[in-house]
Amino acid sequence: MSWFIRKEKGINTPTEMKREAPDGLWYQCPNCKKITATREHKLNAYTCPHCNYHEKVGSDVYFELLFDENKYTELDADLTSGDPLHFVDTKAYPDRIKATQLKTGLKDAVRTGHGKMNDVKVVIACMDFNFIGGSMGSVVGEKIARAINYSIKHKQPFLMISKSGGARMMEAGFSLMQMAKTSARLALLSEAKIPYISLLTDPTTGGVTASYAMLGDFNISEPEALIGFAGPRVIRETIGKDLPKGFQSAEFVLEHGFLDFIVDRKDLKDKLSSLLTMLK
Ligand SMILES: [Zn+2]
To answer: Which helix H or strand E contains 103, and what residues bound it?
Structure first.
C-alpha cells in the first residue's frame, strides 16, 4: 500500500505555499479550548462566550471599554523610570525598561486618564501586566498619586484597575515606598469624601494588594481573578498545611469578606456608572 508511504524523500513546502488561516482571525480560549472569532471575542469584552473566561487585557482595552466613545485625556503620559539603584540582573534596568517600552508601546506599568463614563466624570488608573509583570515601581506610584491629586482637585471619583505581580524588584526600597505614598494620597481622597473604587483583575498580588488595591470604598473584582499577597507555595511552606480549594480566587476572597462584589467585564461600565451615580 504505497498510498500511505511517502515514496519521495525531501518533499518540503515553502512557508509561503502553506495555506493557513491568517493570524488573529480566531481566538482559542485557554480555559475551555473552544474557538471564537476574534471579532466576536472583542465584542464580548474579551471574555469567552462559552465559559466566560476573562482574557487578560491592557489599559487600552479598559479605557476603550469604560470611557464614552473612547475619549479621555491621559495624565503624565511621558513619565518614565530612572535607575536609582543602578540595578543589573540579566540586563541592566534601563535597558530592560527601554526594551519593554519598544515591545509594548507603553512607558510604564500604569496609564492614567480622565473622561466620562456613561456621562459620569471619572479618573481612571489602569495597570498593564505586559510591562515587567505589572510591577509597581516609582513611576507607577507617582502616576497613581498624581491621578488621585487630579481627582481631589476636580472632585471626580477615582477608579483603580489593578493587575500586578507586586513591587518592582529593580527599584527595591523605592518600590515599597510607593505603597505608603499611594495609601497616604488615598487617605486625602477619603477626607475629601470623593469615592474610590478599586477593581482587582487577574492577577493582583504582592505590594499592590497590600496597598491601594485593597483600600477602595468598594473593592471589586473580575470573576476568578487571582488575588493574594504571597504565592500559595510560600504560604503552604510557611504554615505547613494544605490550602483550601479555590484559595486566592476572587470568589474565595469575596466569601471571606475582602471584596464587595464580583463584576463581569461585560457589565463593568454600567455597574460602575450606576454605583457612582448612587454615591453622588
Ligand atoms: Zn472558554
So the answer is: helix 93-104
CA of 242 to the centre of ligand 1 (A): 29
Q: Would residue 7 count as lying in a domain?
A: no
Instruction: Judge if 146 and 240 occupy the same domain.
Output: yes
Domain with 44, as residue range(s), is 21-53
- Sign of torsion, CA 250 253 259 262? positive
Compute the distance from residue 65 Cα to the ligand 1 centre, in Å: 20
Q: Are residues 257 and 187 in the same domain?
A: yes
C-alpha cell at 174: 523605592
Residues 49, 87: one domain?
Answer: no
CA of 87 to the centre of ligand 1 (A): 40
Ligand 1 center from residue 248 Cα (angstroms): 21
For residues 229-233, average pLDDT: 87
Tell me if 126 is assigned to a ligand binding site.
no
Cα(51) to ligand 1 centroid in Å equals 4
pLDDT for 115 equals 98
207 and 79 in one domain?
Answer: yes
Residue (of 68, 151, 191, 166) closest to 109 by Cα position: 166
Domain assignment present for 3: no
- Do 183 and 235 lie in one domain? The reply is yes
Q: What value does the mean pLDDT take over residues 93-98?
A: 97
CA of 57 to the centre of ligand 1 (A): 15
pLDDT exceeds 90 at position 142: yes
- Confidence check: pLDDT of 244 > 60: yes
State residue 23's pLDDT score.
63
100, three cell numbers: 519593554
At 210, is the secondary structure helix, strand, or coil? coil
pTM: 0.90
Residues 142 and 46 in one domain: no
